[in-house]
Amino acid sequence: MNLATSIAAWFALSTPPARIAPALVATSSEVQTADMRRRMTDAWGVEPLNFYGTTEALILAAGRPGQAGMDILEDLVVVEVVDQRDRPVPPGVPGHKVLVTSLVSRVQPLLRYELTDSVTLAGGPNPLGLPYARIAAVDGRSDDVVTLPAAGCRRARSTRSGCGRRSPSCSRSASTRSSTSRPGWW
Question: What is the pTM of this model?
Answer without folding.
Answer: 0.70
